[in-house]
Design goal:
By secondary structure, the chain is an all-alpha fold.
Length: 241
């Protein structure tokens, strides 16, 4: 009888081992608050010893947490990378789909990250989170046709919307991921359209951006659909005009 063949052991390179440890840490941080994850937990999840974790992250848990956060931030920034083709709001929907999928996969960790208060929170971790917000804002402004430095009103509008998206995501997790994710996505797109329309009424730059956006939209897209739903509601205020 032939003995079973044991797979040959392969020593991981430095980069591969570091990636393995970060993946294990990210999986744990996705479902538990940072202060509830120990280096022993990470070592067990990666199938290695605690001293080996220290060898790669000499600053201990804080070093590992910041590296894992940086890795997650890089992944999150990719959610907002979208080719500048097709109707702008359709691009936005795809960006939100990826973002909400990330939120869904990293629920507890995402909540801990945005709500703050963790013992692992430092000025460096805060800077990493803010970097993601800035990157998201720049991408959204790009898709809104801001080919030159945007004015304060338009930039404030986008940053306000990003803050609303973050808050809605946290509430969505707290509410047991209800409503369904596609409904949340479409509602958030509607929120941005409404903010743009309201700001365009008093800001020339935003008005130009809205005009350019509408020119590329389809009748059955988010802008057209929202307009058809809002017009009957707004018409009730016709007596105020």
């Amino acid at each position: 009888m032939t003995a079973p063949v044991t797979p040959a052991y392969r020593r991981l390179s430095v980069a591969e081992r570091r990636t393995q440890l970060l993946d294990a840490a990210l999986t744990l941080f996705a479902h538990r608050a940072p202060e509830d994850v120990s280096l022993d937990d990470v070592a067990a999840a990666a199938g290695v010893s605690r001293p080996l974790v220290y060898r790669y992250f000499k600053g201990g848990k804080q070093d590992l947490y910041e590296a894992a956060l940086r890795s997650a931030a890089d992944e999150l920034e990719l959610c907002f990378t979208e080719p500048p083709t097709g109707p702008p709001t359709e691009r936005l929907k795809r960006m939100l789909e990826r973002y909400l999928a990330f939120v869904d996969q990293h629920d507890a960790g995402f909540s801990a990250l945005l709500q703050g208060g963790s013992v692992c929170e430092t000025s460096r971790t805060t800077a990493i989170v803010d970097e993601v917000r800035r990157a998201a804002a720049e991408q959204i402004l790009l898709h809104l046709g801001a080919d030159r430095p945007p004015g304060s009103r338009l930039r404030m509008l986008v940053r306000t919307w990003i803050a609303a998206v973050e808050s809605a995501s946290l509430i969505w997790l707290d509410e047991g991921k209800q409503p369904p994710v596609d409904e949340l996505r479409d509602w958030l797109v509607d929120q941005l359209i409404a903010l743009l329309a309201a700001t365009a009424a008093t800001d020339e730059e935003t008005s130009s951006a809205v005009g350019a956006l509408v020119a590329h939209e389809r009748a059955d897209g988010p802008v057209g659909t929202l307009a058809r739903r809002v017009i009957p509601v707004v018409s009730r205020a016709a007596h105020l005009l």
